[in-house]
């Protein structure tokens, strides 16, 4: 493959290397952590709309669903049903902080292996669940797996990738999430025809990506940064040569060593995160996760079959419509893989805000006008129009806020606060995913069509945030973020000169 030269500025050297086949293999295996996460996102909504599942665990919801004159917006409003979905994300929130410590002390690779073990245990309990307590405990174990995987995988991808390919390779995590969602929708469409245990098959198949990550991770290397950080210096140099495909890695190696030496001086990374100089990447990392959830994407992905049933599709048609949105999600994420290192991060985010705002607003208008609280659903043409608008919304999200919400935090923290800072990003994502998952069906019941205007208003705020406060990080080596990004920004530069910050901090 052609050589990739990672350019620096000022005193930062240029790092020579190429994107090797081994790096591609490592990236692919690690990205199965995203497949685990995506499959779970996609499978939950389909399972919770299956009659067999509802009859066994949520009979009151099933009875309400069968009523002749049910409330079109409230048929699935049940806190326990929402807890089945959302409990995973509450567990992931807590697990991400534990995973941060494991990631620092033991490395990115063991953290991914632990994630797969948690996930397999969760799959066993949910697929074999006999009581609501069993499946909730299973969901909590799945959440621990998600917390560990989402902590380790994006960091692994950013640290192993050459700078000019960092965006595309890191987005493979999000690409696999979208593939997982699509596969889950396909599985649900098939298993909904299998009675009475089709839902068990749907939940059990989640074990396949977990097994792939568990055994595949035996074949991949640890990142050079993690090895050097844990005093395995010569092994780190050897791995760096292997993943760059060249012998001359001295400049990049020395940069990593310098950053690790500086990181070792920070005994309390979480405390350092509270310092003013750490505020720019921390605030941006947290807000990106909050905004990612308040686009409304997970509300749609969790409950797509439920949403499409609400607007007039039957059960099978609703699941099929979810498959369609899954295809759009995957293909649009591929667009991001191609565009992120060419067009940049900011332009993708801003364009998507316009596209998502228009889609959400029109969906709200259509439902407000034509979907009454009780009585007939939307006509076939209007319901199809809603599906098209949902696809346009998913398209915009999939090439912007979805992948970049993970990419930008993984590339902007200095080494001494990287795992701690990314733990805040992961936990913030899980917290607000939990909030949306737990509240969406109740919000749909009480706000009705207004819920889409609620999310549209948040998208306006996101656009303003991106325009004024989010710097461009395209093509900037991670060891140059401070000098080339934060110190040059009209607002964030004011945080970079406190007494405890050293101007020559390098990041790897």
Automatic annotation (TrEMBL):
A Pfam family recorded for this sequence: Sugar_tr
SUPFAM superfamilies, per the entry: MFS general substrate transporter
Bilayer topology term: Multi-pass membrane protein
Keyword Transmembrane helix carried by entry: yes
Localization: Membrane
Oxidoreductase recorded as keyword: no
Transmembrane segments: 21-39, 81-99, 111-130, 136-157, 169-187, 199-221, 282-306, 318-340, 383-408, 420-441, 447-470
Main subcellular location of this protein, as a coarse class: membrane
Domain Major facilitator superfamily (MFS) profile: 26-474
GO CC terms in record: membrane
A single GO molecular function term of this UniProt record: symporter activity
InterPro entries: MFS_dom (IPR020846), MFS_STP/MST-like_plant (IPR044778), MFS_sugar_transport-like (IPR005828), MFS_trans_sf (IPR036259), STP/PLT_plant (IPR045262), Sugar/inositol_transpt (IPR003663), Sugar_transporter_CS (IPR005829)
Keywords for this protein: Membrane, Sugar transport, Symport, Transmembrane, Transmembrane helix, Transport
Similarity-based family: Belongs to the major facilitator superfamily. Sugar transporter (TC 2.A.1.1) family.
Annotated protein name in UniProt: Sugar transport protein 8-like
Taxonomic source organism: Durio zibethinus (Durian)
Gene giving rise to this polypeptide: LOC111298254
């Amino acid at each position: 493959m052609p050589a990739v030269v990672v350019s620096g500025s000022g005193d930062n050297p240029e790092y020579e290397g190429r994107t090797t086949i081994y790096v591609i293999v490592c990236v692919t295996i690690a990205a199965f952590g995203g497949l685990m996460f995506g499959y779970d996102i996609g499978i939950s909504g389909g399972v919770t709309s299956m009659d067999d599942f509802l009859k066994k665990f949520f009979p009151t919801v099933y009875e309400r669903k069968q009523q002749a004159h049910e409330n079109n917006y409230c048929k699935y409003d049940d806190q326990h049903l929402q807890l089945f979905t959302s409990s995973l994300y509450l567990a992931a929130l807590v697990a991400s902080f534990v995973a941060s410590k494991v990631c620092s002390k033991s490395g990115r690779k063991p953290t991914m292996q632990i994630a797969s073990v948690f996930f397999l245990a969760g799959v066993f309990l949910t697929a074999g669940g006999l009581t609501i307590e069993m499946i909730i405990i299973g969901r909590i174990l799945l959440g621990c797996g998600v917390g560990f995987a989402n902590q380790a995988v994006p960091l692994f991808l950013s640290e192993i990738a050459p700078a000019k390919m960092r965006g595309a390779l890191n987005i493979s995590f999000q690409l696999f999430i979208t593939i997982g969602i699509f596969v889950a929708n396909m599985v649900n469409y098939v298993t909904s025809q299998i009675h009475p245990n089709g839902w068990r098959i749907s939940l059990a198949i989640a074990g396949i990506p977990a097994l792939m990550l568990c055994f595949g991770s035996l074949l991949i290397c640890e990142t050079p940064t993690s090895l050097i950080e844990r005093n395995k210096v010569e092994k780190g140099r050897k791995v760096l040569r292997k993943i760059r495909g060249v012998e001359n890695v001295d400049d990049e190696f020395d940069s990593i060593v310098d950053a690790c030496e500086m990181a070792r001086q920070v005994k309390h990374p979480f405390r350092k995160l509270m310092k003013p100089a750490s505020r720019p990447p921390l605030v941006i990392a947290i807000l990106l996760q909050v905004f990612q959830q308040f686009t409304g994407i997970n509300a749609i992905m969790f409950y797509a079959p439920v949403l499409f049933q609400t607007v007039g599709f039957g059960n099978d048609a609703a699941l099929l419509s979810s498959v369609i949105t899954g295809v759009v999600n995957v293909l649009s994420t591929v667009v991001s893989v191609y565009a992120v290192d060419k067009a940049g991060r900011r332009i993708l985010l801003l364009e998507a805000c316009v596209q998502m705002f228009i889609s959400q607003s029109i969906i709200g208008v259509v439902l407000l006008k034509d979907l009454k609280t009780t009585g007939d659903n939307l006509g076939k043409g209007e319901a199809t129009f809603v599906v098209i608008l949902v696809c346009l919304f998913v398209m915009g999200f999939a090439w912007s806020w979805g992948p970049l919400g993970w990419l930008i935090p993984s590339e902007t923290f200095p080494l001494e606060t990287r795992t701690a800072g990314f733990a805040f990003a992961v936990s913030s994502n899980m917290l607000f995913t939990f909030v949306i998952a737990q509240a969406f069906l109740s919000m749909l019941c009480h706000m009705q069509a207004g819920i889409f205007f609620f999310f549209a208003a948040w998208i306006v705020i996101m656009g303003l945030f991106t325009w004024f406060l989010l710097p461009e990080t395209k093509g900037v080596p991670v060891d140059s973020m401070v000098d080339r990004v934060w110190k040059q920004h009209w607002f964030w530069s004011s945080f970079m000169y406190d007494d405890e910050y050293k101007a020559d901090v390098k990041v790897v």
